[in-house]
Amino acid sequence: MPKKDYVIQVKNLTKSYGENNVLKGIDLNVERGTMLALLGPNGAGKTTTVRILSTLLKFDGGSVMVEGYDVAKDADKVRSVIGLTGQSAAVDELLTGRENLVMMGRLYRLTKRSAIARANELLEEFDLLDAADRPAKTYSGGMRRRLDLAVSLIATPPVIFLDEPTTGLDPRSRIAMWDIIKKLMANGTTILLTTQYLEEADQLADQIIVIDGGKVIAEGTAKELKGKVGKDRLELAFANEKALAAAQKALGAGVVSVDEKEHSVTIAINDTNEDVKSALDTLSKQKIELIAMAVHKPTLDDVFLSLTGKQKKGDK
Amino acid sequence: MAVQLEFVKKPKVVLAFIDSLIMVKRSSQHIIRNTDQLLGTFFQPIMFLVLFAAVFGGAVAAALPQGVSYLNFLMAGIIVQTVSFGSTTTAIAVCNDLQKGIVDRFRSLPMANLAVLNGHVISDLFRNSISTVVMLLAGLVIGFRSNATLMEWLAIAGIILLFTLAFSWLSAIVGVLAKSVEGVQWLTFIIIFPLTFASSAFVPTASMTPVLKAFAENQPITHVVEAVRSLMLGTPSGGHITMSIIWCVAILIVAVPVASWLFRRKTSH
Lengths: 316, 269
Hints:
By secondary structure, chain A is α/β, with parallel strands linked by helices. Chain A has two domains: 222 residues, P-loop containing nucleotide triphosphate hydrolases (Rossmann fold, 3-Layer(aba) Sandwich); 67 residues, Alpha-Beta Plaits (2-Layer Sandwich), CATH 3.30.70. Chain A is built from eleven helices and 14 strands. Chain B has one domain. In chain B, 77% of the residues lie in helices and 0% in strands. Chain B is built from eleven helices and no strands. At the A-B interface, strand 6, helix 3 and helix 4 of A face helix 1 and helix 5 of B.
């Protein structure tokens, strides 16, 4: 069997700020031409990991190799093979979209002619041609993100880091962004994406690593992870504690979580029609009155619930 | 992908120089795009010149050397004052870059990071030169006259440019250290304001209290003002030209490495 071609190799990566251990030994590998999604809540260490991998941050222990270069020793070489799109769109607001692209292209060491030609190509590809000669400060959030991503692609680096590329975007812009990212993947670019959205990782990534509190808590394909999480969820809310307790007893092993405050229980369901019907039948047989119900897809909360057995920590 | 990409292959030093040129272009584009600042570049110097000449002219006239009009006396002072305040744009620009995450973008590129500072400092020279020329023209309109020769004008230009460069680098330090643009404005205000007013920029130092006089006569702004003034009025420079150059070069020798070191440190947390 041929040895796997890993473009990004991270071994036992640690980083702390004083007493605060942000990364407690992260391992990850990304194969050439694939996408790895780093999934986790705010404060899990996603952005710290990306900042280390893209040479912006020093790390304390472990090793990080990108495209064969050691991030700790060959930062300049690493910079010439990566593109980074951060959480806040890092473009020059006073320059136009085109000027931003050409400038960054030149800083990537492209010749002037190449930078101009490539800028034009990207503006067209990212649907920014109409706005190309307007200052970036006049752009909408979605346009800014697209420009930011275009900037990181100006020299067609083989490795791209996308740090929460769709956080804060409206659904339409998010889907437009996904389409662009899918095209990138079709070109064989190796991508490391961070996200808080299970759906995003599911849509895009070949492999998913779930991190929490600076540690990897699960990894696998979207399908494998979802298998662990279960299928859809049915949430049932009751009028009072008595009804809640009765329902908990009646539904038995199917209950995945209980919210005492809201008097609600959540059960995992495999088949929406059958399982909802049987749950409702069970409740009505026992004369337990239901005040609300909802079916939803597994969320990041559910992933964390089933992987760690605790609720996702509050936003930090 | 249709476009075939070609890369510039040159020694590292040359590439770093090209990076600086690219950053100078960027910062200079900012001068033109930032309309508020552009208005300041043109109108503030004219306003200061006219106001000071009108307000202080009568009161100060008696303290001036025989045959020197206040406007002719003021010109050097007001130019140096405008340029001092103008150099704080570097601090604001550096601080802005650091706040807005664009420095992270630059740092993820295979470029020389200090080019960011070079860009702001050099474009500050451009902007301040525009201010100075505007002020001189406005001065000519309202009655400023000078007997300086071409060589003397070149010397004036040289001193002002050197002084701007020195103060822009000082300003770069403030820009890196400040936590916000408001902070920059405060810091530069409490540094530049006393320096320009406790000097011979607007009035002769003769009437100042002994302590203030001692400070005023030995600080860089007075030397620069007196050097420019003597060249404009054709009076003996009394060592001020030499002292100006020594001060500016000394500031540069300290400020350039300090600003660069602070910038590097701030951007590699």
